[in-house]
DNA sequence: TTCTTAAATTATAATCTTTATAAATAGTGT
DNA sequence: ACACTATTTATAAAGATTATAATTTAAGAA
């Protein structure tokens, strides 16, 4: 499953003329297997065991490359650092404002908003982003208790 | 019109026990009158004529206070610095990826997404954010020309 | 109005994330 | 295996935001 995704991603690299380096391989693998939404620093720390000499710049550079190819989505929330998400299907995120947990959920049919905006503003729309904010069950629960 | 909004905003400050300082007055006024979506630095620069001694920290501090009260929304896009928007009605933004222009548009009925997400994830949903990305008419135009 | 006190501002430094630079290294096609 | 160029590394720089401590000031009470 995730094997296939990695294979496909590496294929995308080849197709685009982007060299496959061990670092890129590892970053992609980590992004695919990680069910969280890591920051650049998360990735850097996670891989420093395998690549003791890897530089932060490498992580940032490659995340940018992946983003440009469309393999990875960059998510900027209010907090300090950007988060990165391997692109699979069209899903959205619910973010807990208490503990920061991010949960995926699928939701179809938000394309109409794009059409609407395009008509109203005259923009040539390419995509949109949406997130939902609230409190996760755990955090809601702990509050009710005391 | 914008007079009333300012008055109301100042009233909100009083209600919340937040002191009304000349700097806060000026920042609010600027946010209300500015039809753009200024960064903290924009505001700082715009007011340095009136407040030659004002510190950047003051701008940041007060924007945070305004956000906590709910007077102001903080928008984080991919680019380096956050933008701030005085909260009026429920509107969304279309952002030009070429020149960075931000255009408002009103769109109702995205509450269903919140309900949906709430049911699927069990979150206690408070709000959402959505933006649309694309190219503004001007930038699309200049491209078609050459 | 004046006084008092806690809150806000200022000035500055520190922190943190991200990007730029230049030299060294390593993929990839021939 | 070679050559060419992209990539990595190490480091520094830039830019945004926050922390700190001293000074100033808003706002209620006397």
TrEMBL record, chains A, B:
This is Peroxide-responsive transcriptional repressor PerR. Pfam families: FUR. One of its GO terms (cellular component) is cytoplasm. One of its GO terms (molecular function) is zinc ion binding. Zn(2+) binds at residues 96, 99, 136, 139. It comes from Peribacillus psychrosaccharolyticus (Bacillus psychrosaccharolyticus). Keywords: Cytoplasm, DNA-binding, Iron, Manganese, Metal-binding, Repressor, Transcription, Transcription regulation, Zinc. The keyword DNA-binding applies. GO terms for biological process: negative regulation of DNA-templated transcription; regulation of secondary metabolite biosynthetic process. Binds 1 Mn(2+) or Fe(2+) ion per subunit. Its cofactor is Mn(2+); Fe(2+); Zn(2+). It is found in: Cytoplasm.
């Amino acid at each position: 499953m995730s094997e296939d995704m990695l294979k496909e991603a590496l294929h995308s690299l080849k197709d685009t003329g982007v060299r496959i380096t061990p670092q890129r391989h590892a970053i992609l693998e980590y992004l695919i297997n990680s069910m969280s939404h890591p920051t650049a620093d998360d990735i850097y720390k996670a891989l420093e065991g395998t690549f003791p000499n890897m530089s932060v710049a490498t992580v940032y550079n490659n995340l940018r490359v992946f983003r440009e190819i469309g393999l990875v989505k960059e998510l900027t929330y209010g907090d300090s650092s950007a988060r990165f998400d391997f692109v699979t299907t069209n899903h959205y995120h619910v973010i807990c404002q208490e503990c920061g947990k991010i949960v995926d959920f699928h939701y179809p049919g938000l394309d109409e908003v794009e059409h609407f905006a395009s008509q109203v503003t005259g923009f040539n729309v390419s995509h949109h982003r949406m997130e939902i904010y609230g409190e996760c069950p755990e955090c809601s629960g702990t509050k009710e208790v005391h």
